[in-house]
Amino acid sequence: MSEFNHLAEAILENVGGKENISNMTHCMTRLRFNLKDQSKVNEDKLKATTGVLGVVQSGGQYQIIVGQTVNKVYAILLELTGRGQDQGETETAKEKEPFTLKGLGNTVLDYLAGSLTPLIPVLIAASMFKMVMAVFGPSMLNWIHEGSSLATLFTFVGDAGFYFFPVFLGYTAAKKFGVTPVLGMFLGGILLHPTFTQIAAEGTAFDVFGLPVATQNYASTVLPMILSIWIMSYVEKFFKKVIPATLGTIFTPTLTMVVMLPITLVVLGPAGFVAGEYISKFLLSLDAIGGFLAVAIIAALWQFLVMTGMHLLMISTMITLFAQNGQDSLVTPAAIVSSMCVAGMCLGSFLRLKNKNEKALAFSFLAACLIGGVTEPGVYGLGIRYRKPFIGLMAGGLAGGLYAGMTGVTAYTLIPVANFACLISFVGGTNGNMLNGFIACGIGFVVSAAVTYILGAKEEGKENDDLLEESLA
Hints:
The chain is mainly alpha-helical and 473 residues long. The protein has helices at 2-14, 43-48, 70-81, 85-88, 101-116, 120-136, 149-163, 165-177, 181-192, 194-202, 223-242, 245-290, 293-308, 311-325, 331-352, 356-370, 376-386, 388-406, 431-455, 462-471, and strands at 21-26, 30-35, 54-58, 61-65, 207-208, 211-212.
């Protein structure tokens, strides 16, 4: 743990100390900071710190890439900053900044990331159960027989991760927006209560305090909860301010829910549900609008989207597509192809580079991508560092995405990791779909490797190279 302690201490010092942090959290590979003053960051020292793979500013956050040991570093940072687990991911007060469209966009991306990123473990676990049933169930190998207890168990466990998504999202979004987390879960539970779900299924007339409700089935939805928790953050804050502390324990949560019931069930719930449906239908219709080019373009630009944080908008919609339709033929295939292209770029760089240390780094990036599902080391350590490999990455994404779009490749399982296991997303439909999915990824991998090898990696800036080698040692 000493190396993680040293890394955490160095990161804390070079982001301006704990006093400069208004909020911090983490995803699969990155520490994500909301800083009060980014001018206090010593970026050169951060990049030169052993264990830091890269830094990037995206979605209103200062992000430090440390790889799959991020949870260990984050745990130490919680101790060093004196934050508990709950406090560590809760937004604290920060100085108001002038309103700009860019600032608004960054804020939206920040809240999306803070609400959705913590749910990745649930999505992975649920998707793995679905994957096991898709591969070993009746649709393929038939080792797990339909109607057996094991088949029933794996089916409802996999479905639970998506069905109860509003409850999970209620918790994570509440923490991000500064709402009492259990109240967010309570609101999610209300939307999924069997009585309300039955009213929606039967189309029975229903009202809240005399206001008519357009009842919907909110299982697996995303937007209704995010919108509702956003409003709840203001409602709860208001009651905390006006109700005396001696009465607040009883009346603050109660009155908050009283106010939120008509707002959520009458206004935001139906609006979010309809908006989610339209977004899903729009994305699904891109195949008809842009044809096979839609998948190709997304695959070619996916790593750019990740670097800017714009991929979060697509990921939230991807989750909605899977929850509502059980499949995705646009975003997921493109993202999977792009992940394989990162591995191809790493292989091409490994074959082309002459310096032994550089070759070793490129090979480690390849292993990190294919086995660990971590693409950042390759993207930043090779694509951004040498520029030309990024052209190979985009070329492979375009070629693999083009084939996936032309053959109508569809993903039937959401596996939010970027290693070889994501290929199983193509299982669940026809054998032809699975084969075409594998071929699309193979094309992307080979083209990325070939173009990267042909263009080469221009080895210049020796000082920067030495810093990167030291940081990745």
